[in-house]
Amino acid sequence: MNELVRLLWRLGPIGIAALVVAFVYLNPDQAQIWGSWAWRLIGLVFRSGDKKAVAYRVQGEVNSATTRLFKSAPDGVVEGKLKIKWTTAEDLPSVVRNGEVVVFMQRSDQREQNVAKATILYVPKAIVPRARPYVDPTIMEAVDLVVAKSILAEDDENIGALDTFFRDYLDAAMAASDNLRERLGEIDEIDLQGWLTRVLLREFLYLGRDLYPAPAQDSWLRETEAFARWLHQLATKKPGDFGSLDYRGPLLSVGVVFVAERARLAIYGLDIYRKRVKRLLYIEKLNAVYLMGRDDNIATVKRLLDLLRSDAMIASIDEHEYGLRRDFKARKSLNKERAIVVALRRRQKEEMPADILPGDDDTALLPADTYEFTEEQQLPIGSGKE
What we know:
alpha/beta
């Protein structure tokens, strides 16, 4: 403590001010939480100070959790940070203003209620706003609820706000619509794999960029619903299940390459995976291909990516390595902790590579049935194996 005092003494007022400015610049969300303490002291004298203290605290908590949740998601999925404006009116719509999502709400004396309500009002305006007119409304509502739940679950201290969210918002929404309850289950399974922010919302983001501001068509809404349900089927496949590893529609066309079969890697090497990616991009002309793997296979996915980085047909590469959700092991009975998703986006100019020809079908040797390795590598229910 004495050393800290001496350091601050040496820095002087200008040095201390520079440190404060640097901290606020690098940690704006945490700075808002700290600022709420100062406003609370002011609030002991002025009522407006107490209102600012509550707003700063809620903004800091929600923005900090959102930043952590979306740190490995594509740029542009989140439109802006939360800013709260207190009002006595009810049901005022949130707006995007100067790069922030302004939420108008009535102040509650309960912190948990303020945090839960701010989150549920913030998410529909902040997450892929330009894509929303073109996405099935029930799918989008389910996405909003799962994202809001994930934001509140980011901080263990928000257990009260999470309970409030379940009681006042999620449970009520599920009770009101069987269709929404089913979609919620599907979107949550997608999120359990880490694909909600890194695959589903990424494709919706590009869809919004391509279509906005055109008026929505019913066929577009049906396609986004079909795409979400295809991704759910992929997320819930079990060893031995068969299903398509690509989705092809007028608007969305996506392929998935699971780098997970060690036996085939030992026999055929990475080249067979590289050829599959090229086939999907050059011959099948899919708009995006996602490379996926978990734990020990993350390094293999990265080696495969190194082989593809210079490919002229790939317009952009986004690599996201992340920790799986805390409930993944218990729900999937799989001892997995981390995963990787690499998004490869195709250039629109088309040219077939010399090493992939229409008759070249050796990629059929790759597995097309399951994300998991084998039955033996699954953990039994209740296993304590680490």
